Amino acid sequence: MRDIFTKSTITLLFIKLFRLSSFVALLFICGCGRIWGGIAWVTPACSEAALVNSPYAGGLGSSASPYLICTGTQFNNISTNPQDWGSIFNQGVNIDLTGITITPIGTAGTNFTGTYNGQGFTISNFSYNNTATNNYGLFGYVSSPGTISNIVIASANITAQTNLGILAANFNGSMNNVIVAGSLVSYGGNAGGVIGQITGNSTLTNVISTPSINQHDCFEGVFGGIVGYITSGAVTISQSSYSGQMMNVVAPCNTNSMGGIVGRVNGGTVTVSYAKSSGTLNLGYQSGGLVGMCAGGTTSIVHSSSSATLFTLGQGGGAAGYGCGFIDRVFVTGTVTGVGATQAQIGGIIGWLQNNIALQNSYYLGPGVTGMDQIGGIVGLGNVNVYTNVYGAAASVTGITANVGGFSGFEGQGAGTFSVFTASYWDTDFIATGVGNGCIGVNCAGFSGQSTAQLQTYPNAIFLGWNTSIWNFINGFYPVLF
């Protein structure tokens, strides 16, 4: 377990507690200096004289003398001074944006490439409502080496159209030690609780997102708890979490991708690691507790988990909805439920897994998976994949066709090729059938059903080859990941 929490001069507020392996972060906010993750800053206090609004409270914009931001007007002044968008800014106090209409920092022609360090302070009451506006957030366009860090966004309330993120609309840079809370309503697409879309090489670390997110567009709706859409680049999202509620308001609509961490990956090389998703994800198609859809590029999901409750229109999974190239050390404990007329390809971990994708060292241990066709305790529809050291112990796996299995609802095949199973199992005390359409040829070799007692017995020959530095075996319990 790892704790993330914040302290003001008046009270100690517990912000978030979540489990992320190999991550320790202590966040304190005090009146004179700031400590976040063991890094301390001591900055000039925002005196009464510094509260003037033209344009900043002081500084030269350099690393030795950052511009100091002490008021909402001074923050908004950044957007009207593009000559400063490559500079360094430090926030000196908590800022309330009530009554201030923010112009996003950075434009398509001139991106913000500087550094904004919130120093553990809060920006609150960021509000905007215009359903025709695109590319909206506190920052409009950020590109490398642009960096946003050490900031809390509280009580945000944003309604706009396309490419929306409470902190950044379009992003290609670094972000770390960020907490975002509030609500986001999109009438277009590419909406994220923190970032609307990522367009190039980016690193996100220690990002906590809790906004409620509602999507009102049926044809382009892509939304994610942290990032809506990733188009390209080498992108790493680590030690981050989402714990809000997401809703596809215009359902039924089978084009809306929804993910607890990322809505859709369309290109690039993306790694999601040490991430966690909880809360409720409602009525997305190609929806996943961590990543909704992997339509292009290469996506790896590792060392991550989801306890989110997922209601999916189809191609939905507890970790990922569709595609995603490599899944390792991932576990899911939430309920996955199909709704509507298109509820097919639904799995405890992934809805539709195909074309030489590796799923390994992972498990589903949750209340159940429900849908119509191609419903599986691990995978709804699998096609020519590699499964290694994976097990499913769904308390219930149900559908209305024969394509229902404790492990996979349906396993397809290519031209003379099949999925390969190694030391992978499902719990037969919950469901007798492992693969709904049966084993085709030899594609189920290395795969078998086991009773609850067998899966909870250790030592046991069925776990031969399972790495004890990855798996924690305790006799009388299902194996879990370290």
Assign the CATH architecture of the largest domain.
Answer: 3 Solenoid
Largest sheet: 6 strands, parallel, barrel
Mean pLDDT figure: 88
Query: What count of helical segments does DSSP give?
Result: 2
| CA(first)-CA(last) distance | 11 Å
Number of strands: 49
Total number of domains: 2
CATH topology category name of the largest domain: Pectate Lyase C-like
Radius of gyration (CA) equals 23 Å
Strand content: over 45%
Structural notes for this entry:
The chain is mainly beta and 482 residues long. It folds into 2 domains: 2-342, Pectate Lyase C-like (3 Solenoid), CATH 2.160.20.110; 347-482, no CATH class. The protein is 2% helix and 49% strand. It contains 2 helices and 49 strands. A 6-stranded parallel β-barrel has the order 17-21-26-30-27-22. The chain is elongated and about 70 Å long. It starts with a strand and ends with a strand.
Write the layout of secondary structure elements.
Blueprint lengths: L1 E6 L4 E7 L8 E3 L3 E4 L2 E4 L24 E3 L2 H8 L8 E4 L3 E2 L18 E3 L4 E3 L2 E3 L9 E22 L3 E2 L2 E19 L4 E2 L2 E4 L3 E8 L2 E4 L6 E3 L2 E4 L3 E5 L2 E2 L2 E4 L8 E3 L2 E4 L3 E5 L2 E2 L2 E9 L2 E4 L3 E9 L2 E9 L2 E3 L3 E7 L3 E3 L5 E4 L2 E5 L3 E7 L4 E2 L2 E4 L2 E5 L2 E7 L4 E2 L5 E2 L2 E5 L7 E3 L1 E4 L19 E4 L1 H4 L15 E2 L7 E2 L1
Parallel strand pairs: 6-7, 7-9, 8-10, 9-12, 10-12, 11-12, 12-14, 13-15, 14-16, 14-17, 14-18, 15-19, 16-20, 17-21, 17-22, 18-23, 19-24, 20-25, 21-26, 22-27, 23-28, 24-28, 25-29, 26-30, 27-30, 28-31, 29-32, 30-33, 31-34, 31-35, 32-36, 33-37, 34-38, 35-39, 36-40, 37-41, 38-42, 39-43, 40-44, 41-45, ...
Antiparallel strand pairs: 1-2, 3-4, 4-5, 48-49
